[in-house]
């Protein structure tokens, strides 16, 4: 595939490693006849290291043998999380340290989890951009403070602590951004 056709979310082989393209910038030439440069920032899928790639628009790069399968969480133990493919019921297991960033957002009922499959091996998971979680514990709001946009810490059902507006109460459902860990809205 040509470099100018790459989009964020594509996985390509670069120097023998699978790279998940995260962002890209286009640098237009300043001189006549110069080539447009495409700068990609990605992540090595196996080692999780950041990678910067610069290519001309006509350079050819191979797509990796990579797929995303819809899965659901079966259970987890102290060292691994176990997933099941929703189409063919194949089971995958991942060490918890490989998915440590996503664990605070995962509940048993979470829909939209996708397993990242490379060469028939599950190497990670992809979760939705936002999830809905229940507030388990937070301090009560003080009457009269609702006019300002003050926040207070709240512990969610998964143990994640985020800052929510002062008017929120225990038992309410909130929407949380999984990329930043920020409160988005009531759900």
From TrEMBL:
Keyword Membrane on entry: no
Location of the Translation elongation factor P/YeiP central domain: 68-123
InterPro entries: Elong-fact-P_C, NA-bd_OB-fold, Rib_uL2_dom2, Transl_elong_fac_P/YeiP, Transl_elong_KOW-like, Transl_elong_P/YeiP_cen, Translation_prot_SH3-like_sf
Pfam families: EFP, EFP_N, Elong-fact-P_C
Any single GO BP term: peptide biosynthetic process
One Gene Ontology cellular component: cytosol
Keyword Protein biosynthesis listed: yes
Any one Gene Ontology molecular-function term assigned to this protein's record: translation elongation factor activity
All residue ranges annotated as the Elongation factor P C-terminal domain in the record: 131-186
SUPFAM superfamilies: Nucleic acid-binding proteins (SSF50249), Translation proteins SH3-like domain (SSF50104)
Sorted UniProt keywords: Elongation factor, Protein biosynthesis
Family: Belongs to the elongation factor P family.
PANTHER family recorded: ELONGATION FACTOR P (PTHR30053), TRANSLATION ELONGATION FACTOR KOW-LIKE DOMAIN-CONTAINING PROTEIN (PTHR30053:SF14)
Protein name as it appears in the record: Elongation factor P-like protein
Gene source species: Novipirellula herctigrandis
């Amino acid at each position: 595939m040509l470099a100018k056709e790459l989009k964020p979310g594509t996985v390509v082989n670069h120097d023998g490693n699978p790279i998940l393209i995260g962002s890209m910038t286009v640098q237009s030439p300043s001189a006549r006849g110069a080539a447009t440069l495409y700068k990609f920032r990605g992540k090595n899928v196996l080692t999780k290291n950041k990678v910067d790639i610069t290519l001309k628009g006509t350079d050819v790069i191979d797509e990796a043998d990579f797929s995303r399968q819809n899965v659901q969480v079966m259970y987890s133990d102290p060292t691994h999380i176990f997933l099941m493919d929703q189409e063919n019921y194949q089971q995958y297991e991942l060490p918890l340290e490989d998915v440590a960033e996503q664990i605070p957002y995962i509940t048993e009922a979470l829909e939209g989890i996708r397993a990242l499959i490379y060469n028939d091996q599950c190497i990670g998971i992809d979760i939705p951009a936002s999830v809905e979680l229940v507030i388990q514990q937070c301090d009560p709001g003080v009457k009269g403070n609702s006019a300002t946009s003050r926040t207070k810490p709240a512990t969610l059902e998964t143990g994640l602590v985020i800052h929510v507006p002062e008017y929120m109460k225990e038992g309410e459902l909130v929407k949380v951004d999984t990329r930043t860990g920020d409160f988005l809205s009531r759900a």
